[in-house]
Structure prediction request, 986 residues.
Amino acid sequence: MAKKLSTLPLNLRGPKPRMPLYRWLYEELRTTILAGRLHPGARLPATRDLATQYGISRPTIVTAFEQLRSEGYVEGKVGSGTYVSKTLPDELLQAPRAKSEARTRRRGIPLSAYARRLRPLPRSESRSARAFRASQPALDAFPTGLWAQVAARRLRRVSTRLLAGGEALGYRPLREAVAEYLNTSRGVKCTADQVLIISGVQQALDRAAHLLLDPGDPVWIEEPGYPGAAVVFRAVGAKICPVAVDSEGLNLEAGRRRWQQHPRLVYVTPAHQFPLGVTMSLRRRLSLLEWARRSRTIIFEDDYDSEYRYSGRPIPALQGLDRAEVVIFAGSFTDVLFPALRLAYLVVPSDMVDIFAAAESVSTHHPPLIDQAILCDFISEGHFARHVRRMRELYAERLSVLVESAGLRLAGLLEIPVVEAGLRTVGWLQGGILAERVAQAAAKYDVEVVPLSRYAYGRARSDGIVLGFAAVDARELRRGVEQLGRALQGCRP
Amino acid sequence: MAKKLSTLPLNLRGPKPRMPLYRWLYEELRTTILAGRLHPGARLPATRDLATQYGISRPTIVTAFEQLRSEGYVEGKVGSGTYVSKTLPDELLQAPRAKSEARTRRRGIPLSAYARRLRPLPRSESRSARAFRASQPALDAFPTGLWAQVAARRLRRVSTRLLAGGEALGYRPLREAVAEYLNTSRGVKCTADQVLIISGVQQALDRAAHLLLDPGDPVWIEEPGYPGAAVVFRAVGAKICPVAVDSEGLNLEAGRRRWQQHPRLVYVTPAHQFPLGVTMSLRRRLSLLEWARRSRTIIFEDDYDSEYRYSGRPIPALQGLDRAEVVIFAGSFTDVLFPALRLAYLVVPSDMVDIFAAAESVSTHHPPLIDQAILCDFISEGHFARHVRRMRELYAERLSVLVESAGLRLAGLLEIPVVEAGLRTVGWLQGGILAERVAQAAAKYDVEVVPLSRYAYGRARSDGIVLGFAAVDARELRRGVEQLGRALQGCRP
Prediction:
């Protein structure tokens, strides 16, 4: 009986392909012990029985037993009998419980206050682009071959030093290239020492929020505005204070009337307001800076989409007018090149460089270094500037296709204002048509539009939709306008 | 007089190469206005005077004036006189103040509590590797050509979809490859759904700290232990509770005696304790899990350096023994491949996947997608497993060189215990030699060693140093031992 017990009831599953036999036996025995089918103190099958039963060599079995012994599952010496260890706690000897939502909820691992405030940012669409995808540049026109060439050249001659990792602030030559680009093209006044390379503007927001805001601190955001900013500020516990946008940008006076308390930080998109497209006037810029200086408020300038301007002249960045070092300036490479890249830059006042570097060092060490080097090559070889010029022409064309077909097909239903810059525009619905209904109807016609209300923290106009015109070609834009026309007809009140 | 005033005192600096003339003139006039050399209300020089004085065409000047007017710097119409705008606030009309530390400190932009607690993680050495660099794999043996090939192949056939970005959790095929690798090689029990791709273990720590800890929450860390963990927990305001490490790993009983309050989280390196190299015993693992389950404590298992084991057998991860879903498991690709890569993985209990994904979406969207795809190709084509095998052999060789030469040259001065795994070892100083003195003396002999005390949060033994043996070749290791011998001789009390 004893002999039978030691050999038969184990009923191990047969050896697995590509797994060494000793490993298989070890795992099967371990599972058997943990599942309670071999109790603490139970004798393990004799090696010769196992050898006969499973047709494996005794040395293999001895190896498996030794592993089990070295890990404390079994005790005793091979030859004089091997026994399941008595020190295994009860918990491990139960059969694995079935996974259940109930159990998960019951155990209740507490989350931090930050986690409880956190809301996910919806991911961008995974299906291929269609009219009027707003969150994407013209990836069909991205020079992948050229990028691959530049990357391959850098990768072939990569140095041990580059492989070893770099500074928290980013790859120095890239920081210099960015400083030069920003000084020349964006009117930003900075040295490379103030430039940090980061993994996207979203990370810049997250970093600034963590470093500058405590729970309860008021933060002004534009209304309507970029939802990725509000979600970050909310997660750190800031008090979100939406401020209306008028034809000159964020309405400072309206904000001061509405919110008694001075904010700690103001988030703005002065070059090209997200999503309305307004450019902040110089007068408004100067008032905002002066007020921020007096009230010790930090201005976070998101230089979103500023590379693409079709009419009017570029107005230099708010940062370039700042004499009091209150502006943090952020811009991204991902909208110009491709979103998967996750590289952006941050220009911070010189006395904030160290604390931003410390945060980077503690949270990620630094952004991936080879990507930074490839991007740096792409810029310094002139490809970046050429790509921006090419895309500006392409987007101007696509914009005019949208405006012309909308003028022909959507007259009386949708009015598109003059678009000076960017990859998207707002469209104003006519005759009482409601944006939320349009978005639903458009989806049925295989067209994407976003109601303006999705970008509002509080109340929003119900007659605005956002249309992207950069991601798809003229033909798809025309199809989109036709289909949107049908959708709009069906939404008339 | 009026005419003279309007033309002479401006004294603009001459046109700049590569800058359009209108842009140069615009910038010079703007600077002049902002510096107060042209007061609000002052009349600008007549276009014909400027044309004569600087030898540029009048249309160029008109363009510059119009830009200034569109931005609100000047008022009036070309022809009837152009005047500096009266709405410029005083602040902008002062000459830029010289940068000074004093001013920076005086303005006092307040930082968050998080920022005030933040301490930077020192960056790794930028000079090339020498004996006994501990923080680096053998980059001299990294197959850069092969990596470049795999990368180039992926980049050439990159899809628009890949360029568009991906899921917060990471590139799905990579998550599947990681799950398979961890199940097979590390005894981790998980599905791909529980695997998150992140930008390094440091980020995994940062993420977990933000999601699970509130200020004041106690956290146990190993003493001595990985400083990158303590710095993260400290920054979120956790109460750091160091717990001694004995021959079985983190000493649970010592921790319970020393700290009354249950911790919210325990950080451990069970595979190969950092920096002592101890492997946590099975008995200790089981007790730790059982205690964590009862006290609802999260265990953060850092599977640091576990790929390289030279003797003994690999013990499966703590995570693989966990039935109560209390273990968060983290491991990195950067120690196996190269630090600049910044890619790692996190395996979290299934009910925590969503919150970790939300944090990723809000703070960075996702790690760079093409890097993930390249790494995935590198793994699925078998290169990763081959590289680990090759490196394991190389490191075993390098380790034996260190042990042998130390046995010959450092007998009576330094004792190296049996090294079972990893890229580094502790060395115990003999005869009362002090580690801090050795580190200083070694630096003079062009050798790097780290005193154990640098890895301690509180008190630490003063007779331990950490030596890396993976980063440099046999010859450099022998040189290092010779030189260290000289340094040690000079440190005898």
In short: Residues 142-381 of chain B form a domain with the Aspartate Aminotransferase; domain 2 fold (CATH 3.40.640.10).
